[in-house]
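Quick entry between incubations.
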Amino acid sequence: MAVLNVNGKSLQANADPRTPLLWVLRETLGLTGTKYGCGIAQCGACTVHIDGVATRSCQVPLSSVSSGKKIVTIEGLAQDGKLTKIQQAWLDNDTPQCGYCQSGMIMAATALLAAKPNPTDADIDAAMTNICRCGTYKQVREAIHAAAKA
Amino acid sequence: MTIQTSLGRRGFVVGGATVAGGFSLGFSFPHATAQAAEVQEVNAWVVIKPDDTVVIRIARSEMGQGTLTGLAQLVAEELECDWSKVTTEYPTPGENVRRNRVWKNFSTGGSRGIRESHQYVREGGAAAREMLIAAAAAEWKVPASECSAANSVVKHGSGKTATYGHLAAAAAKLEPPKEVKLKDPKDWKVIGQPLKRLDTRDKLTGAMIYGIDYKMPGMLNAAVKACPVNGGKLKTFDAAKVEKMPGVKKVVSVDGNTVAVIADTWWNAKTALEKLPVEWDVGKSGNVQQDDITALLKEGLTAKEAFVGNKAGDVDAAIAGAAKKVEATYAFPYQHHVTMEPLNATVLYTADKCEVWCGTQNGEAALAAAAEAAELPVAKCDVYKLMLGGGFGRRGRADYVRQAVLIAKQMPGTPVKTLWSREEDMLHGLYHPTTMCKLTAGLDAQGNIVGLRVRISGQSILASLAPQSLQNGMDPATFQGFMPSGPEAAYGYNIPNLLIDHAMRNPHLTAGFWRGVNVNQNAVYMECFMDEVAEAAGVDPLEYRLKYLKPKYAAVLKAACDKAGYGKPLPAGHFHGISQVMGYGSYVAGVSEVSVSPDGVLKIHKITAATDPGYTVNPAQIERQIAGSFVYGLSAALYGEITVKDGVVEQTNFDSYNVMRMDEMPEVDCALVPSGGFWGGVGEPTIAVAAPATLNAIYKATGKRVRELPLMHQELKKGA
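Done. Structure below.
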């Protein structure tokens, strides 16, 4: 039985230590906001923060995060129903289409803005390698710039 | 966080609220509870709660394209309701059957959500408004003609007012009006507005429930592996080797060609499936190589027999007598949908009931597939639609629903979610069909086209998915964009002698409807070739096209060129390419601005669209569909290619099937030029102009005609 620090809470996860964090979050802890898209760290839909670093959770075994590392998922961003300024910028800009990749996009953008509060387009290109098949890239870029100004 | 507790069979949890019977977006209640005392169904399309919340029923599926919001705008326009109080819900396909198809077609493909239901959903909104007015008039004992409705309030000349929430119960008891008059477009207040989508917030917090996220008490999870060669069979498997692995409950054969491991979690099911020894009978397609497919299509380019899709005059005589002949052959590969959410469906089967929870583009087809697989009457089955993590045509077919039912049928009484791995999804797609095209044009001494011959060779989608719909063997959809007339995908050029035909050649992969469908490659063939012909005639590609284009096509092409500044100076090394097409009832054009570095690196700087969809229901969402269409179309042009080795698709995941990412995203601009009087779709047509405009710009930059996609295989370096 592993104990994980997820969104500020200590949660017990009964799963094989080799299980990817993505599936522990989704199936053991019921946190389905983190999405499965490829399972090989290509698409970014499963992006979470581990000690503040945007990380593709499909490639992180449970055993490597069960020692008090701070995990934040999409469910852990808004506090008491109040969206973060990044989520708010996403809302104001009507950013998602199907929305499936957007959890990962928002987690990646949140880490980017924490590191670089005023990112350039080149910074965005380098940090935002998540795949969106609906093609919301234009709106994502605009929302990141808007959040930086907010 | 959502945790499943002790719910009844039909109950489930969405964001902490328990609902039953159907799925709704934005936390409104589904139909089963909508009939409870406090909530009034005014008619099939409109439910009004005492607090004035307006729940608009949406039959089509939302998959990112914005149809949910657009359809709600159409109803709200006529209903005269307060938009800030609008929510939506899906009726179930089973409910549609029980109510004599009151919501008509659920199918969501071909960009037809709005263009094929605008009339009856507006009539639904108008009828509900008339009933609310009649209810107020009856309460006040005044003629209905003295009352008016606006912003969810009915008013009488005397100053009396009543809210929709107050009137709904009485209105619901009234006979619906026999006829309603719809508003003149000049009076629209909601249609045409760039309103925000209604389904955004939950997509930002992880609360939105997609099919893959759905949970039920006691639910098990299935991982599946079908014979890697399409058409092959399952020979044997050794369940004993994995039955003791963690969480494994059962290993089952499905449909004679698939094996499934059912376990407590999907991860455990997948882990066991990977260890399961399986033997396949790959069948006759097990030795098919990519070269065989290429050869098959090449042979069709010159074959005698072909289905004629468009014919005018005597093309052979015209070309034989031409002063100059231009000829080129193009090729278009198989492509994959790669919806971000892998295919899945959750099924609860018992001996007398079968229920399915999934994302689907066609709830009615999913219901039919479920009933057939369950061997139960349709009345004992239903499908509860969940949000789709992308559709693009893939979720229009219910193969994954059928499979999930066949698996759950082997665990009666236990809900089972079947989820495909990305690898399974890549191997068992409904691929965009592969075709080739040979085009021959005859020009007179002045460079005018006197005849055009277009031979398409390749796969038919209908032959794969609906052979009963072939017309004397012909697949009319193959000619999308080349059709002689009609509101869908008519050819835009007036050319005196013309022959467009199709030699059907069907390799063993299953072809399917892929966002944009056959307009995509037909636009590459025609629009790139038009540039070749214009060059042979010594005329600018825009000017040359305008000589032959019908008025609406010409207008939209000019609008795109004006917006992009075509013909005006560009930054050094930048070049424009153009294209146009009519698809899904809309006229679209594109201008691509590219540069190619001396060592062959392509950069698409900007792409400009113009769209005439007749009416624009929500310009903000249309702009998003245009930008998204460019991503979809350019991803395919740059990287999209499915190939076959030993009968098996070679690409397995995003590492071998690349798509465009943010760093490659060009600036997008668009001109919406609605000319009114018709309703065109916007989810697909712009895809088709992305590739040809870009290929035409690449020619100007490099002098190289790219006639085969994807671009990643093309050497664009100078002198190469």
